[in-house]
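## Example pair
The file below holds two records. Each record gives the amino-acid sequence first, followed by its structure token line.
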Amino acid sequence: MGVRSLTQAEAEGRSGLLTVERYDVAVDLTDLPGGSRVRCESTITFGCSRPGVETFVDCVAEVEEAVLNGVALPAVVGGRIALAGLGEHNVLTVVTVPDCSSGEQGVHKAVDPADGEVYAYTDFTPDYARYVWACFDQPDLKAPYAFTVTAPPGWLVLSNSGDPRIEDLGSARRWTFPPTPPLATYNTVINAGPYYELRRSGAGHDLGLFARRSLAPILDRDADELFTLTTQGLEFFADKFGMPFPQHKYDQVFTPEFPGAMENFGCVTWMDWFLRRTTPTRAEWDHFSRYLLHELAHMWFGNIVTMRWWDDLWLNEAFADFASNWAAVSATSYTDAWVAHLADEKHRAYFVDQGPTTHPIRQLVRDVSEAEATFDAITYAKGASVLQQLMTYVGEAEFSAGLTSYFAKHAWGNTTLEDLIGAVAESSGRDLDQWRAGWLETAGTDRLTLDHDGDGFVLVAKGPGGQPRPQVLAVGAYRGQGDRLERAALVEVEVAGELTRIDLPAGADLYLVNDEDLTFASTRPDAASRDAFFGNAARLPTPISRSVAVTTAWDMLINGEASAAQAVQCLTGVLAVETSASVIEPYLDLAVEAADLWSPESERDVLMRSVAAACRSLSGVGAYRKAALRGFARTADDLEQVRWLQVEAGADVDLQWRALVRKAQLGSPTATEAQALLDRDPDPEAWVRRLQVRAATPDPAEKTAVWQTMVTERAVPLASVYSVAGLFWTAGQDDLLRPYAEAYLELLPSIHRGGGGPARTFTRHLFPQFGIDLTFVGRAEALAATAVPVVRANLLERADRMRRMLRSRG
């Protein structure tokens, strides 16, 4: 029998039966420097409300021994061990031996190519703890965890609770950690290896940063900013949530080969891709600041208070995304966080929410395998935007008061949607039932359009089912002043029906619906200014107004209401005047995507040259120089331009790699230059940059070798698959790429091996972008019917994206 996924009904039955008192988990990592086996002994002390009944404990790892109340248990079946004849008080001990080399989830061993040092981490979202040790792997059976870890003598061991007792055993050391507060299984962690460590005090806490030794200089470079952001976040959330972070120690661990970022209580794990090998741009810092604050917000949303079941994943992820932007704007130097959110993330949510995989923010999740499919732009970016709308709707002070009440009442417990919305409703005095039903329990995007009749202006609002959601938004009226637009009026309006009168001045040159970006809705310019809209976007006076206009133009492109040329016109115009460094790179990414992926072949070169010209112009602005040169590296038209870029790049190894990629795409030999650059690049993952150059090369042997490394061997770090795959599917290489489109379809039945993270990454980023037609898209959509949920959702989303692109290409 295969490994079974826990259903909601099973979880509810088990939580109604059991009370978990504590976990005592002993972990032996001493085999890892040379081997791949981890030995775990999990002892669970728990009560049963109906003695004599039968239930099960989750366990997918190889079991050496399992004993319940002194009685040996039978073998694992379907990832479960049956527990029969339960007493009122029970002690279960299970010894497991997971293998780090098996490709399974839960525990991973990484070897640093720079020095051969070994690092290990655990990663348990959503239910991967059961792959390492026996546990009741569901979010509402929270309990304290006491970890004891035996590790090689030169290693540091990090876990949720700080200040372990360390014993020297001669050939090893034993780390005994104090028990944690009650946590869900997926919020626990062990990180271990010969880490480089930095510590500092901040906000009354002992803050730690860790990285593999080969990245110590980069951690040193970024440490001041990381400590500052962490301190600012801790202070802000303590104030807004009415509860300081309740543990003295807060660690953040940057580890090799980790597939993202994980909010383990008191010990956040990061993929060390976030430690940029070249000095980060402002946009990269803006992006990272929001990630850092997102994981920090999870200490409250997810750890201290945990969703009861995965249908309320938004209680974790949407709130953490919202809170990170709220904190960044209010407490850090990254005051354009909401603008960057709109430019970088929210437009993706609009796309997904108007496609075949749309779903309510809170949705039915029948089992954990379905939960893996909900880690998407709707749960994160739309959820964050909807919560911003809620704060606008009720008022910031009232919203914060509701959160304070929520945490005071539910600390260390589990909640549902009703608990949170009820707390905000009580603090604000507003009935939020209609708001909750419209925003959290209804899929799809509202459409807002401004009309003008004989009596003035009317906002026309249509919801997915007809009636729009209750929401507050603003409409700006702008008049020309020379080559700029100035705001003549900003009218805030509460939508309560399909038609809402707005008192706006007549005769404006542009009316901007959803000015200030207060709601989540697809907007359109009024009919009179539609044709001039794409050029007028650059004349708007603020980063947020320009970003709203860019988002409108992009939404029109993906819905077939604007051409790639119009989108590029809008984006390059805005880039020429943009004052926020936080959005330069997101806009450049969109401009390149529109020109390269959405344009007809007959227009592609012209539009790419237009973006290249914008990049070259921006490269003269100091704050934008690096971002602009990166954009130019993607759009340079010929080898002479590439040579200019190489001269401009100078000693910047990152830009030199990007120049070689473009040189490869243009068909010029790169092997000698690439080897020389590889020899002098200090980055432990520099071989991936060499692989990117090979991926871009229009050569059959190179395509075969890259596919073998990236897909068959899965040797590319997960964070870099996107960049390698994007270059593999290069425009103009259709004949070379067609066989790999077929290989992608053949790969789909097994693409989910290794868990949800790899499944999402490979399904999305390996989807062909050239060398296919609508028939291929239909075949991919047909295969989705038999795929596991996380693959199905991402496959349908990618197919929808390609169907729209092919339509736009004509």
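Second record, same layout:
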Amino acid sequence: MVVSGISFRRSMVAMLLGSSAIAAAQPALAQDNKAAQAPAADGVIYVTAQKRVENLQDVPIAITALGAEKLKDLQVKELQDVVKFLPSVTIQTVQPGFSQVYFRGVASGENANHSGPLPTVGTYLDEMPITTIQGALDIHAYDIARVEALAGPQGTLYGASSMAGTIKIVTNAPDTSGTYGAVDAEVNSVSHGDMGGVMQGFINYKISDSVAARLVGWYRHDGGYIDNVHGSRTFAVSGITQDNADLVEDDYNDVDTYGGRLALGIDLDGNWTVKPTIMGQVQKTNGSFAQERSSAVSGKLQTVQYNPEKSKDEWYQAALTIEGKIGNWDLTATGGILNRKDWTQSDYSDYSYFYDALFGSGAYLYDNAGDLVSPNQYIKGKDVYHRQFGEVRISSPQSNPLRFIGGVFYQRQQHHIEQNYIIDGIADDLKVPGTTSDIWLTQQKRVDRDYAAFGELTYDITDKLSATGGLRLYHYNNSLVGFYGYSAGYSSRTGVAACFEDAIVKGSPCTNLDKSTSKTDAIYKANLTYKITPDALVYATWSRGFRPGGINRRGTLAPYKPDRLDNYEIGWKTMWGPVRFNGAVYQEDWNGIQLSFLGANGLTEIRNAGVARIRGVEFDVGYNRNGFSLDFSGSYNDATIRKDFCLIANSSFDCTLAGSDGTDNELLAPKGTHLPITAKFKGNAVARYEFPVGGWDGHVQFAANYIGKRRSDLRTLENSIKGNLGAYTTADFSIGVKKDGYRVELYATNLFNSNGVVNTSVQCLETTCGDYAGDSSTGGVFYDYVIRPRVIGLKFGADF
């Protein structure tokens, strides 16, 4: 079933108006979420992990929550800063706005491009899912109530994109208690780089006793630290020399981020609340965020790029949430839209250089006069996302021994993909029809649709023992249509030559891909929780998560199927006076892994090709007394594949069996190979002491983070070529004072200037380009995406 945008909007309006009618007919006290917005008191942190307000220590889930003050204390500005302090979470990024997060080692090395599988981790902004195909939105962290990290499958309540876990970003809601606000400013400097700064502020305005508005705004400039150094090289076939002298620049990867949020809170006659919100952000980047591994550079934080590189990522989210009661049952109706556009320009000349040297591809690149042109290639991309979302749920009184929460869910994600691979000056017959100078064009529309009904039922067997069962019935219908490939003059088999229909997607010359896949199924959850004392509980959980199947970008390949994650977990939550000790041990079985990798012509290929097992433990220990606090958290994950991974998948995982067309098979990774991206051990520690200083409240804080060695690729050969990602440690320090709403703080992040690598890539690898000793023994230039060097900053702020 396909629901059009018009019918969806009409349905949402009818649903929300219908909720208002119910409010008039059934007067009741509106839900009070103020406890969840309030600062922690006596160590109590309130969360909404189970879509209701609860004390974190009472939630039988492995969850880490960072509140508003903690986010400030830890110098959190963006998603990557948060992940440092989430023990079960790993981040893989290529630049701001293009990051993937992973829980508990559930990662197969996805390249996360526009035609890749859906993420394994769902990201929510308040009530709305905001995960897009290429990663979560990179939201500037200001006026945020808290960030919740829910480890393990959350599929019952959160759905398809929460197979391995969920991250919730909860904003501060409008407050009818009064008018107040704050302004904050910062100036900083990055080591070996440039200056940066932040200006941000908010005002909470009380319009009446039942209506309030909250307006938030921010601007941030991050100084660059990667130098584009001089380089030149000569293409083998044409003898044309490429030189980047006009692009040489120090600290050329600077970033500007600005945005705002406006929320309105309306209490309807004391019974119901309505909260419309609109939020948007623009992020502009220049340059590359990777240091190069090649003979062309002399040190770290350097690269040689031959074409301009930049991006612009802009998005806005509009959402409406209505909360109230039907009798003594709580009802929440929420819906919204997310529109996102990003424009990118990136250097792709390595690919051209190695293909020319190895295969002589430059001999086929000529102008209209028949003369050879430079094979230099660059990419201009444009991605347009549109998401519609709606959910209605009800929950019974939490004081009852039998409790229920359930509802219905709908979302539609549409992604218009445009990727122009450009070689300037090529002849008209080599250009993809309708383009200026594209040697290759991707012009496609991807649509991912999700429908679900979900519910969880909890029963108190005794005063101390509770049992919960959960179910989610789901249906997905995903499609990909459009064009990819060369002109008919450049290839007689692919691209235009393979078209079977006129253009369906605007901007494409014709259609050579039009496929869809769908499935209806269910996932489940079971939990037992035993409350030993009011301050201690233990729980046992079995939960299942899933990820929908989809369409391969290469139309000749079959659609890939869903994969599934089964989680078996035993956890505990305890408070011993000033000491908090939470933890969990678990095993996760990952079946039908959607493995994505680059195949022929650099096209992503996705197939279900593996079985993995993750065994691990995570812990969170905290102490807080007399102004001194100490927190430790960490995780250990032994994540390995349990069957041989073959080039051509088969049900017996036998790599000696040839393909159905007689193609030779190959062992890519043997049983027992560790999954990539996630270290076996990750840990952090934060120590803070607060003390009086001449009538002011002072503080000093030290934090340390450690991430162990990781594989860069699941496949044995590719990992040996690209290399492992090395272990690294970072340290942060801050000291400051505050009094009567004024505050000053001096801080340093990555104090000892670690050069930790979070991701690595190469435009041309041995499997596609072969060996070439002319520049690199592996036929490619490698790029390591590193953490930001040491930043020293001075912050000022005032409340009013």
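Notes on the second record: The longest strand covers residues 438-460. The longest helix spans residues 5-25.
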